[in-house]
Design brief:
about 350 residues; alpha/beta; extended
Length: about 350
């Protein structure tokens, strides 16, 4: 049958339009060219940080936390320039088991301090996944009232595998915040329990948040993190929990009486606080001011900071040695070879380690 005489059908495909232009103005796509990064002006960034520019401070912290080799050099140059303007804040470490209400307390306490014309910086550490390495970093969104204060700064950072509930660069971040003019630093740790002691080595005052009826009273008798605390907050002392919280507070005071003080010359104490009802927050600040006055009179304030800087120096030596050790290609090959020997039972673990350092 001739196609011209064929009845219209869905099986019949007509010839398309040949040649021609569809009317669209097609332009040859441009090749993507990566913009050359301008060299960082360290002096300008340092001035912006000192002026209290929160955006500049956030950029400076990102620079410090970066693992890029060039960023590390720039970050240390920035710190060197800002170092003379650091050390004028009170550093407060806040820890406690998950669910103790650390973020709620920090928001209520920090907001109160901001209304007292204090400049408050919060460094909130979020746990990183051991599988993906990711973190939620949601503390800033949970502190809605605090972040609206003009004289506050909230910076969430991932723990990035660092033990002790803090970030590896938390110490340097604190120095940047001090250079920016913040006079109260609140370091919120991950909250992993009694092994969380690393933060004690970087703050002036170590505050432990506990709950009523969680069995913490008995845990306190086992010392652990209790003997490192300069103060204990029995949190969520509101509603029907007011009387139990005050009873728990008295029990903690008795426990602290039998423990060796964390700070020479200071007797650690316990307070009942409600962040929801905003009660007891002023007493926490009074306690901190009394602590600062007491410790500065004995000069232990400066002694502790010098000891912390020295310990920081030695811990960084250890980190550098580990990085240098595993950074050697020959060493990596040797480690993999010895791992194979150990896994197949031809060497003990101790013999394998000794083989690495026998030369």
């Amino acid at each position: 049958m001739n196609e011209k005489n064929q009845e219209p059908s869905a099986l019949f495909v007509m010839d398309g339009v040949t040649g021609g232009h569809d009317g669209m103005n097609y332009v040859q796509p441009k090749k993507f060219r990566k913009k050359k990064q301008e060299p960082l002006d360290i002096s300008k960034l340092a001035l912006e940080v000192r002026s209290g520019d929160r955006t500049a401070l956030a950029r400076a912290i990102t620079l410090i936390e970066s693992s890029n080799a060039l960023h590390k050099v720039d970050g240390q140059a920035l710190l060197q320039e800002l170092l003379p303007y650091t050390g004028n804040a009170i550093r407060i470490g806040i820890t406690g088991v998950p669910g103790a209400g650390k973020s709620s307390f920090i928001e209520a306490f920090g907001t109160m301090l901001c209304k007292m014309d204090k400049r408050v910086a919060v460094l909130a550490i979020d746990p990183s996944s051991s599988l993906s390495g990711g973190s939620i970093l949601g503390d800033k969104t949970r502190m809605e009232e605090l972040v609206r204060q003009q004289n506050s700064f909230v910076r969430p950072s991932p723990s990035a595998g660092t033990l002790g509930g803090v970030h590896k660069k938390s110490r340097e971040t604190m120095l940047l915040c001090e250079a920016a003019g913040y006079d109260v630093l609140l370091i919120e740790t991950v909250g992993v329990g009694q092994s969380e002691t690393y933060v004690r080595g970087m703050v002036d005052f170590f505050l432990l948040l506990v709950l009523t009826g969680a069995g913490d009273e008995l845990q306190g008798m086992k010392k652990g993190i209790m003997e490192l605390a300069d103060g204990i907050i029995v949190h969520k002392a509101d509603g029907d929990n007011v009387r139990p919280a005050k009873r728990t507070m008295q029990e903690y005071k008795q426990i602290l009486h039998f423990l060796q003080p964390s700070t020479p010359g200071w007797m650690s104490t316990a307070l009942a606080v409600s962040s929801m009802e905003k009660t007891g927050l002023d007493k926490v600040w009074d306690m901190l001011m009394e602590f600062e006055n007491t410790v500065k009179k004995t000069n232990y304030w400066n002694i502790r900071r010098h000891e912390q800087t020295r310990d920081w120096f030695h811990s960084m030596i250890t980190d550098h040695l580990i990085d240098s050790f595993y950074g050697s290609p020959e060493r990596k090959t040797q480690v993999r070879s010895l791992e194979d020997e150990i896994l197949h039972g031809r060497l003990t673990v101790t013999q394998g380690v000794n083989a690495l350092f026998d030369k």
